Structure formats: structure tokens, C-alpha cells
């Protein structure tokens, strides 16, 4: 669980540079990063809104359990 300081720093980075905040949280070349980059190019405010959503609400760890593993992940 991230601390309050980490969350505040991620939110501040997401407001200043939305794709960078999403990249630090989820990594580069992810769906979240590509959507945030596209929205930031189309308009700065939609990029900020999506970056805040991706940082605060989206939890990537829940998608990588055994039953909901993506199709591209290598199997056991």
C-alpha cells in the first residue's frame, strides 16, 4: 500500500505531466499510458483527468491473478 506522500507526489506529477505520472505508476507501453498520451495530445485537461483516474483508481495487480490472466501472458 503506497503512503500518502507517494500518492500526493504521483498526483502532482500527473497534473504537471499526465503521461509521465501514468508511466511511473503503470509503466511505459501499457494501455493506460497510450490512452493518457493520446488524450493529452488531444487536450491537456482530458489527459489530466484520465491520469488521475489511472493513478488513483486503476489497480493493475488485480488483473494478473491465475483466473483473469491476459491472453498474452505466458502460461505455467
UniProtKB/TrEMBL annotation:
It is found in: Membrane. Its main location: membrane. Keywords: Membrane, Signal, Transmembrane, Transmembrane helix. Residues 1-23 form the signal peptide. The chain crosses the membrane at residues 33-58. It comes from the Eukaryota. InterPro entries: PMP3 (IPR000612). One of its GO terms (cellular component) is membrane. PROSITE patterns: UPF0057. Belongs to the UPF0057 (PMP3) family. This is Uncharacterized protein. It comes from Citrus x changshan-huyou.
Amino acid at each position: 500500500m503506497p503512503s500518502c506522500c507517494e500518492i500526493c507526489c504521483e498526483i502532482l506529477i500527473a497534473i504537471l505531466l499526465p503521461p509521465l505520472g501514468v508511466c511511473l505508476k503503470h509503466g511505459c507501453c501499457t494501455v493506460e499510458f497510450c490512452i493518457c498520451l493520446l488524450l493529452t495530445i488531444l487536450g491537456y485537461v482530458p489527459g489530466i483527468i484520465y491520469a488521475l483516474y489511472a493513478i488513483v483508481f486503476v489497480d493493475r495487480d488485480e488483473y494478473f491473478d491465475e483466473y483473469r490472466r491476459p491472453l498474452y501472458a505466458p502460461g505455467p
